[in-house]
Design brief:
Elements: E1 9-14, H1 21-27, H2 30-38, E2 43-48, E3 66-69, H3 81-95, E4 99-103, H4 105-113, E5 117-120, E6 126-134, E7 153-160, E8 162-166, E9 172-176, E10 184-187, E11 191-194, H5 202-214, H6 220-232, H7 237-249
Parallel strand pairs: 1-2, 1-3, 3-4, 4-11
Antiparallel strand pairs: 5-8, 6-7, 6-9, 9-10, 10-11
Length: 257
């Protein structure tokens, strides 16, 4: 478990992937990437490597203001022990109405844990920049309230071959894309799933594409197409970071400007 500066707000990163050599060298690990994207001065962030069986104690969950579940090379519908244990933890956090933000695998495993269905994407890999469309007639949740500037679409970095097939009964889909039907979903004011990677930088994805190509996980044309897309446009990282921070911290009067 790692921490940064003590303060009145405390968050936990449930890390479902191991650090790549590149991310360790450039950023010091994914923990630093997430904290840079979602953290602020005066907060404490704890790291739990759930992929290696490291979980927060059940009697300490109440101490946290929110939780973030990372992406992973594993399948959210798998039955590895740590994934099943994570599902139970997420069910517990939902019952406690703790804030939980799920990213990519985290988005999918949240869905599975709370009664939805996930599986292989019907249209295959989605790698690169994707324009996500915000649902026009959604019921506005607290982290988006009082917003006259809700964009019709936002670009985000994607890297997944699984997807949400069906959201939990009480969930609301708030964003979709031409590739994926459930890009974002919410449950009440405490659950938010995002299929893309709001925390990723373009260089992190470039390195990941090369690794996927080298281990024959993707075809060369898929890799090249993704890289060309990254050269032509930028993800709306600042907007995504504001959305995630506002969700975790329940800010009022949030705007995209």
């Amino acid at each position: 478990m790692k921490q940064i500066k003590g303060g009145e707000r405390t968050y936990a990163l449930l890390m479902a992937a191991r650090d790549s050599d590149y991310v360790k060298k450039v950023y010091g690990g994914y923990f630093n990437v997430f904290v840079a994207a979602f953290g602020e001065e005066g907060e404490r962030w704890d790291l739990f490597r759930v992929i290696d069986g490291e979980f927060p104690e059940m009697n300490e969950l109440h101490k946290y203001d929110g939780f973030v579940v990372s992406g992973s090379p594993y399948d959210a519908y798998g039955n590895d022990y740590w994934i099943l244990k994570l599902c139970f933890l997420l069910q517990t956090l939902d019952a406690m109405e703790k804030k939980v933000l799920g990213v990519c695998f985290g988005h999918q495993v949240l869905c599975r844990s709370l009664g939805g269905k996930v599986g292989k994407a019907f249209t295959g890999w989605d790698i690169g920049l994707r324009k996500v469309k915000i649902v026009k007639d959604m019921s506005v949740t607290s982290f988006l309230e009082d917003m006259d500037e809700i964009p019709t679409s936002l670009s985000i970095i994607e890297c997944h071959q699984d997807e949400v097939w069906e959201v939990p009964m009480e969930a609301e889909v708030i964003a979709f894309s031409d590739k994926t039907g459930v890009e974002m979903f919410t449950i009440g004011e405490h659950i938010l799933g995002i299929q893309g990677h709001p925390e990723y930088t373009k260089d992190i994805l470039h390195n990941l594409i090369d690794r996927l190509l080298n281990n024959n996980s993707i075809e060369r044309d898929t890799a090249e197409k993704a890289k060309v897309g990254l050269e032509r446009a930028e993800p709306d990282r600042k907007c995504w970071e504001k959305i995630c921070r506002n969700f975790l911290k329940r800010r009022q009067n949030f705007t995209f400007s």
